[in-house]
Every structure is written in C-alpha cells, then in structure tokens.
Amino acid sequence: MKKMPQLALGPIQYYWSKQKIEDFYHQVAKTDVDIVYLGEVVCSKRRIMRNDDWMRIGEQMQEQGKTVILSTLTLLEAASELSALKKTCSHSPFLIEANDIATVQILHELGKPFVSGPSVNIYNSRSLQKLGEKGLIRWTLPVELSVTELAEFQRNRPDIIETEIFAWGRLPLAYSARCFSARAENLQKDDCQFCCQKYPDGLLLSTREDEAFLCINGIQTQSARTVNLLGEMDQFVELGVDVLRISPQSEHTIDIIERFSSVLKQPQSADRFNSELEEWMPDMACNGYWNGDAGMENCIKSPAHTGTGHD
C-alpha cells in the first residue's frame, strides 16, 4: 500500500511583526502539520526575530510532536551573511534547509545532513545524486518543473532522498540584489525603512491591462497567483511524494492546513474544498507549471504521466 505524504509548513516569506509571528506559530502548534520550517529566507535585514526567538519557537514545535527545520537565506550578498550562516549551520540543534549552494558546501564540510528548498536548482537526476553524496536527505522540486519531470526524478532518485512538493502559496520565482519594495517606495535599499512590512502578502504588480502578473517581496519576486495542488493528491501518492509544502500567507493559513490535512485523510474530499480555498487566495489560482504549461495557467486536469515513482 502506498503511503500518504506528510504535511509541511514552509518558512514565512514576508516581513511580519514579531507579535504576528509569535501568534501565528502558537496557532500552528495546534494543527496537524508534521513539519515546520522556521527562519528568514529572503532578507538578512529582517532581524525582528533573533536566532534565540527561532530556537524557542522550534522547541515549542518539537514539544507538540512536529519536526523542525531551520531555513537559511536564499541569496547571500555579504561576508557578514556568510559568517552568520556558518554559525547557524554549526550550532543549530535542528535540521537545516539549504536555499543556496554555499549552505550545501558548509553543511557537507560539517558532515551534517540537510534538505534543499525550492530555490536550489536541481534539474536532473545526476545533480540530485551528487547532492545526496554531500548529505541531502530531502529535496524540494523547483516550482517551475512539471509532474512529467517529477516522474522521471522519482524513477531515478536515490532511495535515501525524499521528495517534497511546493503545493500551496505564491511561487518564489527569483531573487535580486536590488530591493524592489524599497524602489517602489522611492527608497534606497540601505535605507529601506523596512517598507516591506507594509505588505504582509507582498506588493502586487499588474499589467497595463490590469491583470495581476507578479508580486514583489523585498528582493524576491513571486507569482501573483497562488499555486494550489490539492487536487493532485492521487498523483502525489502514485509517484511516492513524501512531503507537501504549504507556504504561509497573512490570513487563513491555519484553515488551509486543515483542508490539506482533511484531504490527506480522505483523498476523495479534495473537490469539496477547492472552491473554498480559492476564496482564501490573495489573487487567483494557478497550476500551469505542474502541468507543463505557462505558470499562470490554471489547468483543470493534469496530463497523464509515464511510469511510477517509489512505493
């Protein structure tokens, strides 16, 4: 019998107040989510949560039976950030999520296992195998790859490496040395005044035809639309996907976790929840990448894949 995936809550990608973060994780502790990612992944200037704060929340999550993973920065821009990263990797009591290849090298030198986030560009099985030799124990499929490409990975991946899918949230697409949020406010990056805190779900960009196109979040560019792969549960099970990731948003994240948890218990209930989930999206739904189409598309049915994954 093929197993159901576990449910993970990804790191908060936005800059929320400390109180909002504390309250959020107090609620998360009561949910059925299995894995919780903690830490800052976008901007090193976002220091409202100190390392001790993340450690304390992590311990609270562990007390509730959850696996805790400490997420690291996606784009390293200064020697001070590299130094802080080395310290985190050396002293963290939790498993580390590598979001940059420099983190992979540091953890390999320390002899520590790790998981990779969606920003680590793993596009073929040889890369996956090579990272497995360096300590990778779970990888996250890059958000722009499809179910057909996933099936190929699943046929060839090492048995020791688990697979995680970004199943809900605005897709992290790109990172830049420039802070787009500061530029939108006519501010310099070095004097950004933490303006991204004004946008708890990022700042929406629209085309001249007033169609939602992208979302900016500091140095990060996201999709305007929200990926929702809840309806793909049968394929996840058939392909042997181990973990589904929900990316936090400022409202309704707990409700979203509950709906995903319900479908994991009763896969046939997915259709019942999709209309409700769409009401909780900041904009519209998309699943184009998953279906090998343009990312902004929202395809009703996924194409049949060839072959099966690990049982």
* Overall geometry: globular
Proportion of residues in extended strands: 15-25%
- The count of DSSP E runs of length 2 or more, i.e. the number of strands, is 12
CATH-defined fold name: TIM Barrel
CATH class: Alpha Beta
Q: Strand sequence of the main sheet, in spatial order?
A: 1-2-3-4-5-6-7-11
Structural class: alpha/beta
CATH homologous superfamily designation: Aldolase class I
Q: How many structurally independent domains?
A: 1
Q: Fraction of residues in helices?
A: 25-40%
Q: Taking Cα atoms only, what radius of gyration do you get, to the nearest Å?
A: 19 Å
Describe this structure in words.
This protein starts with 5 loop residues before the first strand and ends in a 25-residue tail after the last strand. The protein is globular. Strands 1-2-3-4-5-6-7-11 form an eight-stranded parallel beta barrel, surrounded by four helices. It has a single domain, classed as TIM Barrel. With 311 residues, it is α/β, with parallel strands linked by helices. The model is unreliable at 302-311 (pLDDT under 50). The protein has helices spanning 18-28, 51-63, 79-91, 101-110, 125-133, 147-156, 180-184, 233-239, 253-265, 270-279, and strands spanning 6-9, 35-38, 67-71, 95-98, 114-116, 136-140, 162-175, 203-206, 212-217, 220-228, 243-246, 285-286. The chain is built from ten helices and twelve strands. Helix 3 packs across helix 4 (101-110). Helix 5 (125-133) links the parallel strand 5 and strand 6.
